[in-house]
């Protein structure tokens, strides 16, 4: 009996060993219910050649379309370093000598981005990128570098136009209408952040028509959460087809880096400014010569003013406003039939008028409505005192 039990145990052990070997080395020889891999599960791995092929997902096509038209802008200028104040101390000069040299000069550099808008070499960027620069160099995506000249600039909208001379036609971006943008649309920001090289970031349109930010005199920004950092200024904001919808201009940041709140000038506004700069070398806007302030509820109650409009705080001497009969304390409520909601809208409506034309203005004076016709003047170059 003991011998039979021993033979049985050995047989079972050998059978289990054979079964284990088959399930490990040749599982396909076993019945389906004994196989370790369910027959319905078919896991496949792409060949190396297929895995390396573009998947077609994402926004690679949009990036390929726009990238060649986005350039790096390098600026340089002479900066004077003031003389050390100790050099004015007679005791210091007694011990260390009279070094009569004044301030010293050093070369300061800056960087930004730009967008090629025509094969002839016209480039859009921000005015603050090239402001006060002595030399401007543009580097294309293919590595070629060119000296650039300033065609014209508009500090009040922070737009500048450069031009480079290339023997070959340059890749130019295609404009899209900003009116086609909606909050929530996907956009790509392209530029040269921190000088690391051409970079693409993705986000959405967070808001449209942003103003009252104190960035420019004339504001109508696209807000986006696509990462925009120093060096991105003047770069392209494009849609999912690679078409230009805005020029990246500013960020809201407490650290100097992106916090997800960036601002771009809409393509429609930029194109209008660009066309006028290329045609005339500058931008001409309307002006009447008044100082304005917001109408608060307290002012409205005290002086019988409308809540909407702009309060005339002062009138420049010999200005179109003075010649037309505008007085301090008047509240302007419409320009050429268009209602004024606040001082910013008044600024934009007057700037849009053609210098030399006669335009009807609606005011409220001491609670009574009046109408005055003013001849629009040419807006002077910006200075430290803002007037309209």
TrEMBL record:
Keyword Signal among UniProt keywords: yes
Entry's EC annotation: 3.4.21.107
Entry keywords, A to Z: Hydrolase, Protease, Repeat, Serine protease, Signal
Superkingdom of this protein's organism: Bacteria
GO terms for MF: hydrolase activity
Residues in the signal sequence: none
Domain PDZ: 277-342
The UniProt record lists the keyword Repeat: yes
Enzyme class: hydrolase
InterPro entries: Chloro_Bact_Ser_Proteases, PDZ, PDZ_sf, Pept_S1C_Do, Peptidase_S1_PA, Peptidase_S1C
Protein name in UniProt: Do family serine endopeptidase
Organism: Uliginosibacterium sediminicola
